Amino acid sequence: MSTKRFFPFIIVFSISLYSCKVYQQVKFEGLSNLEVVPYTFAKTKVNADLKLNNPNKYNIIVKELQSELFINNEKITDYNLYDTSIIIPALQEYTHKLKLDVSTLTLLNSALNLSNSDSINYSIRGKIKVSAKFVNKTLPIDYNGKISARDLQ
Is this structure's pTM higher than 0.90? Predict the structure, then answer.
């Protein structure tokens, strides 16, 4: 057998191994610029900036995002993006604008907790499907942070 027949396979296999090795996970940097907008008695709109950081030397494309937002370990809403192509530039932070519908009662309970302390604990859990260099990955999301009173508008 000739090596010419296997040469394309060796090239593709080598590139695949290299691509998998250098691919680093997109980092969640947290929420900021929270804005609470009264909507109805039952629902309230919350706008926020979700900060993502791409530590890779190439652009990352977010294909899908499925997440749940918790405040003080209580689920307040889901946030999902399907069939999207958000590009996070190489070696940069990216801010994605969130528009969430939240139960007014749940939000009021969280506001009462804020009156007793200077911050509220929150977490984002779920998964994110990303693509780069012809490699697709589904990565888990498990981020914990704090919202301070000064971050609320």
Answer: no
